[in-house]
What does this fold into?
Amino acid sequence: MTMDRRSVLGLGGMLAAGVLLAPGLRLVAAPEEATEASDKRRWAMLIDTNQCDPSCTSCMKACRVENNVPLFGDPKRDIHWIRKVELRPKDGKGPDRSLPMLCNHCENPPCVHVCPTQASFIRKDGLVLIDMHRCIGCRYCMIACPYKARSLVYNEPPESASHNRKVPRRAMGVVEKCTFCVHRLDEGGQPACVEACSNEGKGGMLFGDVNDPNSAISQKLHQVLSTTIRPDLGLKPRVHYQGI
It folds into this structure.
């Protein structure tokens, strides 16, 4: 009997999900560490919606260029690692708010809990990432994510979308999402969306290590009133919003 890669990975996912090999035995695979990320850090983002212009899309454009996220021309299948949403008060009082939505890199991520192959995992520094070599495209994580932050790659991306060699070339049939530009963080940089907001927008996005009491984001979170999206779920998101 011959089996293709997806069938083999799917079988591995069944085993990791709890199918017994023999009475009392289980096979569970763990993702390899991609970097020497430190568990002393905890990355987070603060977005000031007061500074977010509804017409500004600099964060979205920067993300798409930096991470080679292509548009296929199909609204149902286009991939968005970051998107803009509009909030309107139910009672009609107060201003409308425009805010970027992206993966919240939760402390208790449901996407990781439901993944049958452990393709979704939490790195030492709290980043929620996806190992595309383990992903079988089951989409359980997409269903579990309350922020709609994940996308399935339905189409083969165009060759022109692979210019950034620091970002792994995507594979059709796997799930992907925002990584906080992990390749930049590992080189001491900032996510592309934050940099673009500072250079082209109004500087409404702040990013850093909340475990460092001297970091700008730690101090800002203690100075302003902020909230997270759906805190009632107990996921402890790492993306905070000011002004909503």
Observations:
- Confidence is low (pLDDT under 50) at residues 1-9, 11-35.
- The CA atoms of residues 16 and 28 lie 5 Å apart.
